[in-house]
Specification:
The protein is of the alpha+beta class. It is about 25% helix and about 45% strand. The protein has 2 domains: about 55 residues; about 120 residues, Beta Barrel (Lipocalin).
C-alpha cells in the first residue's frame, strides 16, 4: 500500500520548484473558480427566487381578477319606465369598476351609482357610491362568500341594505339587496340579462 501523496515529493518522482509554483497557482485558480461558481450559483438562486416570486404574483393577480371576471359586461333590466343598465369593466388586476344607469324611455339617462369591486389586503370589497346618499361617499361591503359565479357581501353597520349579493347563471345575473330598515326586514331583487 502506498503512503498518501504529497505534491512536494514522492518516492516514484520528484516535483521541481517550477512545478510547485504552477501547482500553487493552479490551486488558487481552482479555488477562485469555485468561489465564483458559488457566488454565481448564489446569484442564480436569487434570480430564480425572484422570477418564481414574480411568476407567483402574476398568477395570483390573474387568479384574483378571474374570480370575478364573470361580472364583466353590460347587464340590463327592462321596465315600463325605462332600462336599468349595469356596466362592469376590469380596471386592473384586482379591481372591477361598475356603474348603474337608468335610461328613461325618452332616452335621458341618470347615473344611479358607481361601484368598485376590489381585492384589498386579502379580502374582496363591494363598494357602491350612491350619488344621493351617504354624502356621496362609497360604503364598503366586505365579501363574506365567493365561489364560482356568486358572491355575498355584508356591512352590518349600514342602514339599508346590510347585505348585497350577486349570482350569474348563464346569460342572467341576479343581484339582491337585503336587510332591516326601521326594524323590518326587506329584500329587493334585480334580475339582469346580458346584452
Amino acid at each position: 500500500m502506498l503512503p498518501p501523496c504529497n505534491f512536494v515529493s514522492y518516492n516514484l518522482f520528484t516535483i521541481t520548484e517550477y512545478e510547485k509554483a504552477i501547482l500553487v497557482v493552479a490551486s488558487h485558480v481552482i479555488d477562485h473558480a469555485f468561489s465564483l461558481f458559488n457566488s454565481t450559483l448564489c446569484c442564480m438562486k436569487k434570480s430564480l427566487l425572484f422570477l418564481f416570486f414574480l411568476l407567483f404574483s402574476v398568477v395570483g393577480f390573474s387568479q384574483r381578477i378571474a374570480a370575478v371576471q364573470w361580472m364583466v359586461g353590460t347587464w340590463k333590466i327592462n321596465t315600463p319606465q325605462g332600462t336599468i343598465v349595469e356596466i362592469w369593466q376590469a380596471k386592473d388586476d384586482s379591481t372591477l369598476q361598475g356603474r348603474s344607469v337608468f335610461v328613461k324611455t325618452a332616452g335621458d339617462s341618470i347615473t344611479q351609482e358607481k361601484i368598485e369591486f376590489a381585492y384589498r389586503n386579502g379580502d374582496w370589497y363591494y363598494s357602491p357610491t350612491v350619488m344621493s346618499q351617504n354624502g356621496g361617499n362609497a360604503i364598503p361591503f366586505k365579501v363574506i362568500f365567493i365561489r364560482g359565479t356568486e358572491f355575498i357581501s355584508e356591512n352590518p353597520l349600514h342602514d339599508f341594505p346590510q347585505r348585497i349579493a350577486y349570482r350569474r347563471i348563464k346569460q342572467n345575473m341576479y343581484a339582491s339587496i337585503e336587510g332591516k330598515r326601521n326594524g323590518k326586514y326587506g329584500k329587493q331583487n334585480f334580475d339582469f340579462t346580458s346584452e
